[in-house]
Specification:
single chain; TIM Barrel; 8 strands
């Protein structure tokens, strides 16, 4: 596949008031992101509420997203699970319906060893011919994919990059320094994404891009090109927005913000709850600063 660079939105999953998936608004969001310059659309990740959708819904979200994109931008299908067999099945489905690549998170809750993580990702890559981006987010998974394990995995055919979401820039620099040619390092942390890209990273898997896609695209273009002043001018406008998007667990604030903009409803499934009323004014003010409302 053509290497993915730029702004990769970690897309929210629209839901109706009864909690069912709102597929018409999912299609509308995909069209809007394409028109706004989003470079790749990531679906059914943590921001897409993957823990609370059923397997059938998970697969249908991927299918609809691929169908709606119609090749205009790549679809990165979230296929992660803490069961290797389940992750393989999701990846097989994603490949079958035409997803461009898969995002595979470190198995959560069961705390695998480094060898267990290595064998998990290797098994998926060997079972399914679909380019894989690893996803390390120890703040969510508890388990941490260590540098040496990433470098072992980077040698495996079909494993093409990593979403590095620790926010640790020294760690990101070592990944960029040691990665083999063709292995991409993506930020998974909006607050530090500019720095990672200026160090040589290939893009950003972004929560903020859900509501500010054009700005995030422009930021990524500037940072990847090494235009630090231009990238930081955009980042400085977005800093308060980044901050307020994480005052409660993701995707609670971003889904409220998307609803505030009229992009879709704000419904989430338990155990995710509505955005706290006392936090809403600060996020609304940050959105106004960026001209989003």
């Amino acid at each position: 596949m053509t290497p993915i660079t730029g702004s990769i939105v970690a897309l929210i999953t629209p839901m109706l008031e009864d909690g069912s998936i709102d597929y018409p608004h999912l299609r509308t969001l995909i069209d809007w992101h394409i028109s706004q310059g989003t470079d790749c659309i990531g679906v059914v990740g943590t921001t897409g509420e993957s823990p609370t959708v059923t397997v059938q819904e998970h697969c249908e979200i991927i299918r609809v997203s691929v169908e709606q994109s119609a090749g205009r931008v790549p679809i990165m299908a979230g296929c992660g699970a803490n069961s290797t067999a389940e992750a393989i099945e999701l990846a097989r489905f994603a490949r079958q319906v035409g997803a461009d690549c898969q995002l595979q998170v470190v198995p959560y809750y069961n705390k695998p060893t480094q060898e267990g993580q290595y064998l998990h990702f290797r098994s998926i890559a060997e079972a399914v011919d679909l380019p894989m981006v690893l996803y390390n987010v120890p703040g969510r998974t508890v388990a941490d994919l260590q540098h040496d394990t990433v470098m072992r995995l980077a040698q495996i055919d079909g494993i093409i990059g990593i979403k590095e979401a620790t926010g640790n820039l020294e760690r990101a620099q070592w990944l960029i320094h040691d990665a083999p040619e063709g292995f991409a390092i993506y930020s998974g942390d909006d607050g530090t994404a500019v720095a990672l890209m200026l160090c040589g990273g290939q893009g950003n898997v972004s929560v903020t891009a859900n509501i500010a896609p054009q700005m995030m695209h422009d930021l990524c273009v500037a940072a990847i090109a090494g235009h630090a002043r231009e990238a930081m001018a955009i980042q400085n406008r977005l800093l308060n927005l980044h901050k307020n998007m994480f005052t409660e667990a993701n995707p609670i604030p971003v889904k409220w913000a998307a609803a505030r903009m009229g992009l879709c409803g704000g419904t989430m499934r338990l155990p995710m709850t509505s955005f706290s009323s006392q936090l809403q004014p600060a996020l609304e003010a940050a959105m106004r600063e960026c001209g989003l409302i």
